[in-house]
Amino acid sequence: MKAIKTVLVLSVFTLITAFTLKPVESGYDVGDTAIDFKLKNVDGKMISMSDYKNAKGFIVIFTCNTCPYSVAYEDRIIALDKKYKKKGYPVIAINPNDPSASPNDSFEDMKVRAREKGFTFPYLFDDGQKVYPQYGATKTPHVFILKKENKNLKVAYIGAIDNNSHKPAAVTKKYAEDAVDALLSGKNPEKTTSRAIGCTIKTNY
Q1: CATH number, domain with residue 158
Q2: 160: burial class by Cβ within 10 Å (0-12, 13-18, 19+)?
Q3: Which residues, at least 6 apart from 27, have a Cβ–Cβ distance to it below 8 Å?
Q4: In this predicted model, what pLDDT tens digit does every residue of 106-133 receive, in sequence order?
Q5: Structural domain range at position 35
Q6: What is residue 93's DSSP assignment?
Q7: Model-level pTM greater than 0.90?
Q8: CA distance 138 to 140
Q9: Position 11 pLDDT exceeds 50
Q10: Rounded Cα distance, 194 and 157, in Å
Q11: 142, 174, 179: which is closest to 57 by C-alpha?
Q12: Do residues 65 and 161 touch, judged by C-beta distance below 8 A?
């Protein structure tokens, strides 16, 4: 009888969990084709990668206002955009956090942060948290470098910007730069993945 009760309790818990937990998506692997998105920028305009007709690819970075790792990388993200935008690889930053779980990551706060730091790239709000699971982003910051191949966007690199989150002067490996440089020279990146270091993406489920 006790065993039957245990099975019933576990069965009920399984059913409740199935209906209350949001499905986890595996996200992209290197070589996968990325789907375009349409998200609101801090200037109020809707932005898609298809808007960039002359781009050779993109440096998509999931980041936010509140994570100390993201804040430590802001100047380096600006530098990436300034260096590679003119070469065909602009930065597109996306805030994946749910503001109800992280109030200082609201759209209004995003506008303030972008203005204060002088962001040179779009800073998009993943309203409803629909885009980051498609990519498989788990941290802020988390980088996905995409390469245009005909009409497709192929994932060429996933991971960290470099190998030292808080001390730019101590960086010895510039993963994102090395990946884009390889793509610009017509080669595949030597290192296609690294471990993203940062804060977990904030959700309310």
Answers
A1: 3.40.30.10
A2: buried
A3: 133, 134, 135, 136, 137
A4: 999 999 999 999 999 999 999 999 999 9
A5: 26-200
A6: E
A7: no
A8: 7
A9: no
A10: 8
A11: 179
A12: no
